[in-house]
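Lab notebook, bench 4. Still working through the backlog of constructs that have no structural model yet. Next entry is a single chain of 378 residues. Request: give me the structure tokens for it.
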Amino acid sequence: MIFEDVITLTQKLISFDTINPEGNEKDIAIFVGNLLSKNSFNVNYHKLAENRLTLIAEKGITGLNPPLALTGHFDTVPLGANQWKVDPFAGIIKDGKIYGRGSSDMKGGLAAMICAVLEAFKESAPKGGIRLIFTAGEETGCHGAKLLAESGYDLGKASAIIVGEPTSNYPAIGHKGALYLKISTTGKTAHSSMPELGDNAIYKAAKAITKIENFRFHAEKDNLHGLPTINVGMIKGGKNLNSVPDYAEFTVDIRSTNNVNHSEILNRLALELGKEVTIEKLVDLIPVSTSERAPFVQLVYDVCGVSTNKSEIQKSLPYVTDGAVLQQVYGNVPTIILGPGQPEMAHQSDEFCYTAKIKEAVGMYKNIIFKNGEINLC
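Model written out:
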């Protein structure tokens, strides 16, 4: 059974509320798993937490040639503070666009991958087979993929990886790494009319933030990823207006390149910020990088009609994907980020994806599947 069509399947996937936190990816995972099982896929689930499942589905894997791995995530970000003009879970179609939370990031991509593999096997068994890895908990730091990798689950081998994140169907060959930190400071509370009796934790945090604002990586520009960045995204502290705060914390988001080392960055921050702060690592993901000279990359470029001479193509993406985990699991195999979603619509209110892009992605994925099988035979 193949679902009625890729747009109807996208609407169905959008109808599942998988906002993370809390995620609640169990129902959508089982729905997709049942669809794939009815089409002779071997389906397994990996538990991230209560009501949270990652799906691993395989078909046509013989061991003679490594399969192509296609991956995406079930969870979405929250709706945001702005009022939506459409029902975020209805998958409303208007003017060639399908609206809903996750339409671009990335349930349109998931639907395109599912339909592509089902259609491919209906025509002819792809050489090497296919493995689908659809994760829970990607949006908050690739937690589903990391737990899957660290659990000892046997993911076998792969010839290459396609990550279906939103790229408007233009292939990217990498993305920056991510080092997320929580930095906290402590002090001593006192009445705000007698601040000399206390020790203000917010002042300590403010001094640390100023040092981070002036932090320099001293790294050369990466040919693929450019320069690393650092940003303070959230801060909180204090209990009430008329007290000296005894605790404060803030978050730091570092986007790294191949020319910096996360451990060295942590050591430098610890030295520069001093003993007044405590640094906790939240997410640690290295960059994804693939050579344009790889036959798989040339194959994908050919399918997508991309020339390596096109300077306007964004080869490295600023956001992070599960590819950061899976490329390491599979021994640094070629990893392409390619999906129908609009990058600028990710995490936006009234998020949409062009229906034509989703349909186009089905054909692209299917062509890549068959052409990759030809590479495997060489």
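Notes after review: DSSP finds nine helices and 16 strands in the chain. The chain has two domains: 6-175+288-377, 177-285. Flag for follow-up if needed.
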